[in-house]
Every structure is written in C-alpha cells, then in structure tokens.
Amino acid sequence: DGLLDLAELLNVILATAAAHGRDRQLHERASAEGTRMLALIDVNKDQVLSRDEVSAFLAESGREVFNFLLTDFEQFDEDRSGGLTLQELNNMLVYVSKTPGTAAQPEAQSTAVAPMSQAAAEVPVAETTQAKVARAAKVLLTQSDANQDGVISRDEAKAMAATSGQEFLSKLVTDFDTFDKDSSNTLDLKELTVSIQAMSS
C-alpha cells in the first residue's frame, strides 16, 4: 500500500541513523588522511597539490595504490585551479572509499558506509516495540535538533525530511501541528514518540 508499518518505520529510522553515523565517521577519517597526505605530497608547502607534485609522489615504487590521485585529479579539481585543495582532496578520499573496485588504502575502504540492510541488521532483535519506538524518537531528536535545544522546531523537521534518505519523515512536517499537542511550535521527545507511531498508521 506504499505505507510503512510501525516495525518497518522503526527499522528505517534506526538503520538510517546508523548509516549516517558511518558517513560522518568516513568524512572524519578522510579529513585526517587528507591532512596527512597533503603534508606528505605538498613539496612547496602552498597547501595545494599540483599535478607535478602528485606525479612525483607516485613515481616512487610501492605507491601504485594511490594512482587515483592522478586519474581522478581533474574530476575533483572543482575550481579548475590546476591544484587540489585540502577540501578537494578530502572529497576525493571520501569518493574513493565509497566506490567499489576503486584502488584505495585498505584502511580507507574499511570505513566505507555500510548498506542500509547491514545497518538494519545491527538493530537489537530482542528489543520490545515500545523500547524501539523510544530509541527511534531519541535518534530523530538527536539528528534533527540542529540548535540542540532539546526539541524539534518546524524548520528543523523540514530540514530533516528534505535530507536524502529521510523522505519518509514528510508526514512529520505535514502533520506537525497535530503532533504538537502543547502548541509550542516544537516537538519534544514525548510528542516525537507519539508522532512515530502515528506515521506508521
């Protein structure tokens, strides 16, 4: 019927949170690795990797695993400056880590975002439905509460529903006033818990 029942909705919420957590870890790992690589390859210390610097780095034996730095150079030189900034290098490392079959460092590959099905499999199976609803509500609150004031505003709900992979939360936006029982223009944890149950009906 195109609708998610409660069990399916809970699995989607929790699996999405797990996948987003992995994505955040991947970006943090790429940032650290990018900083290290920039310091290693950037011979003239101008904080930009030129094609010549990358070629010189790859010329040394045993560095073939880094060939993507050269083959994908132009694709990630977003400002067409002829060099890779730290941000562009980080973007490249994230892409390489997420792309199957791409030659990348083993440790970078190991941080690739797991498929949603794998993330869903990590949800405890012995958990009661009530406990799962409560945990899903806390997850949504943590993800959506951008200003960390302990509640979700209408704008925060819209932003979360507009995020890729979170479209199933559109009912949270359209029925916001219904879920906002105290008319505070925000959803607290209790109201969010009720809304999760309502979104599956």
UniProtKB/TrEMBL annotation:
It comes from Noctiluca scintillans (Sea sparkle). GO terms for molecular function: calcium ion binding. The lineage of its organism: Eukaryota, Sar, Alveolata, Dinophyceae, Noctilucales. PROSITE patterns: EF_HAND_1, EF_HAND_2. Pfam families: EF-hand_5. It comes from the Eukaryota. InterPro entries: EF-hand-dom_pair (IPR011992), EF_Hand_1_Ca_BS (IPR018247), EF_hand_dom (IPR002048). This is EF-hand domain-containing protein. Keywords: Calcium. Residues 29-64, 73-99 form the EF-hand domain.
